[in-house]
Specification:
This protein has helices at about 5-35, 45-50, 60-70, 85-115, 120-130, 140-145, 150-175, 180-185, 190-230, 235-245, 250-280. It has about 280 residues and is mainly α. The two termini are about 20 Å apart.
Length: about 280
């Protein structure tokens, strides 16, 4: 595709995305402003509680104001239940990356072993098929009981949810390497380790990175639910705490931040994946 055509397509897609955003926010704002009722409560409604005010969905203008307030001081710390959004996301990222890289350190070597050895594949496949469908959060009570530390338990849950996509994709990528390339390595009398590092790893790298990209998305998804259970700190705890305070503006703002961080993580791994594919 011509460079000018790609640039034109990119510019038009950005403009269209902005138009969709503005229209969506406008509809949201108008629906909130025209859908509410400012009728004062009667004395009977106040005494009986039947007309107690309820928290409504805030308009986007309130969410934008909240975002400006939070992002202008993202790292303030006023105690256990009052920390900035930057600190909360930092705690979540620490747990996600700790469990994620621990999973990668185990999943990729085991995936290589399974992909290169039909015997190990047949031996380990039943365990993988049993453990893979288990919800990561189902492990949380057992982790809390055994580890007896909420943060370590959250990291363990991230480890469990991250390991399977990486392991399976690694095994699939390694098993799919052309046998001709492996045979050439053997004719040059390369041992198994050098064959794995110089022949199989470069060929299987795009598939391995696909598994890693899937895993980081799942890990970021699961950490929110895990932190709602264990509490203390993190973006999941932030969402749950603001809901308990009936602050829906903060809840919506935190949802947007969760999506934004997830998009950045996915874009980072997508960039690495494209570079690896183009370098082949």
């Amino acid at each position: 595709m011509d460079w000018n055509l790609r640039l034109s397509l990119r510019v038009r897609s950005i403009i269209l995305s902005l138009v969709i955003l503005v229209v969506s926010l406008g509809v949201w704002e108008l629906s909130i402003s025209t859908g509410g009722s400012d009728r004062p409560l009667t004395e009977y409604e106040i005494l009986t509680g039947g007309g107690a005010p309820k928290a409504g969905v805030p308009p986007p203008s309130d969410v934008i104001a909240k975002a400006y307030e939070e992002l202008s001081q993202p790292f303030y710390d006023n105690g256990p239940n009052d920390k900035g959004i930057g600190i909360q996301i930092g705690y979540s990222l620490y747990r996600v990356l700790s469990g994620y890289f621990l999973a990668a350190a185990i999943a990729i070597p085991v995936g290589f072993l399974i992909g290169m050895s039909p015997l190990m594949y047949r031996a380990l496949d039943p365990y993988i098929q049993i453990l893979k469908p288990i919800s990561p959060l189902a492990w949380m009570p057992l982790a809390l009981f055994v580890i007896q530390d909420s943060q370590a338990s959250a990291i363990f849950v991230i480890f469990i949810c991250s390991i399977w996509p990486m392991l399976i994709n690694t095994a699939f990528g390694v098993a799919g390497v052309r046998q001709d390339w492996v045979n050439v390595a053997r004719t040059h009398e390369l041992n198994n380790m050098r064959t794995a590092l110089t022949v199989i790893l470069p060929a299987a790298a795009p598939t391995i990175l696909t598994g890693m990209r899937i895993s980081i998305g799942i890990a970021w998804l699961v950490i929110v639910a895990a932190e709602m259970l264990v509490g203390g700190t993190g973006i999941g705890y932030y969402v749950w705490n603001e809901w308990n305070n009936l602050d829906l503006t903060s809840v919506i703002f935190s949802i947007i931040m969760i999506g934004f961080v997830g998009m950045v993580l996915d874009a980072f791994f997508g960039m690495i994946q494209r570079r690896v594919q183009y370098s082949e």
